[in-house]
Amino acid sequence: MPSAALVIVGNEILTGKFSDENGPWLIKRLRALGCDLVRIAVVRDRVDEIAAEVRTCLAAADRVITSGGVGPTHDDVTFEGVAAALGVGLEERTELTTLIERYGIPLDAANRRMATLPAGAALESDPAVSFPVVRCDRVYVLPGVPKLFRLKFEAVSAQFAGDAVATARLFVTESEPAIAVRLTAVAARFPRVDIGSYPRFGEGPFQVVITLESRDAADVAAASEAVRAEMATITLDP
After folding, report:
1. Threshold 0.85, pTM exceeds
2. Greatest CA span in the chain, whole angstroms?
3. Which DSSP letter does residue 197 get?
4. Residue 213 sits in which domain range?
5. I need a labelling partner for 120 at 20 to 30 A (CA). Which of 37, 80, 180, 198 fits?
């Protein structure tokens, strides 16, 4: 199954000036596509830190997505970081300088930064986006502005599609310590089902939410029945 990792670039996220919106959105979108998100990291606007994290993510996932740091200002250094991670130089792309001029943006030194990409980058165009998506090998470099991030991701989302994940959710009125042994036994019987246990407080008559996930719907159904058989106090109405 396809896997992905997300590198969020921006001092503004780490200092709390802005809250990250792209990570929570992408988590749900990738799950809907059937792609496993295996890592999310937030790094500062520093070339060395971006490069190190991109390398880590490339080792962990099939594809890497970056968010932020692609504008014209001094702190937009994601292209430089990705180039360093891949061990390539930078090159100005006439396709992008032409677009910059077409949109009436001054083609000065600062704005040329938006057209200076890691060498060999692919430009993936889509009618929904005015500027193409920049893909550097397995790294998709997206803007940090949430609206633009989502538009550009959707332009390449088919490349992240896999088999759908079947899910089930059960609400248990017993405490987590009370059910731990029984739940562990069920998990051992169904190794292909990811079973999670999450205590909740003051949200309803239940104390624990149990989730079951697998790409095999029959396994999820069987594991759900096994959990129901072990837990005498399951509420269907949270």
Report:
1. yes
2. 70
3. E
4. 166-235
5. 37
Q: Looking at the structure, tell me whether residues 151 and 230 fall in a common domain.
A: no
Name residues whose C-beta falls within 8 Å of residue 2's C-beta, 6 or more positions apart in sequence: 34, 35, 36, 62, 63, 160, 161, 162
Rounded to whole angstroms, how far apart are CA atoms 163 and 215? 7
Higher pLDDT, 173 or 138: 138
Instruction: Return the pLDDT at 128.
Output: 84
Nearest C-alpha neighbor of 159 from the set 86, 61, 68, 83 = 61
In this structure, what CATH number is given to the domain that contains residue 50?
A: 3.40.980.10
How many contiguous H segments (helices) and E segments (strands) does the chain have?
9, 12
Residues 124 and 60 in one domain: yes
**What's the structural domain count of the chain?**
2
b/e code 21-42 from CB counts within 10 Å (16+ = b): bbbeebeebbeebebbbebbbb
pLDDT in tens, 184-220: 999 999 999 999 999 998 887 888 999 999 999 999 9
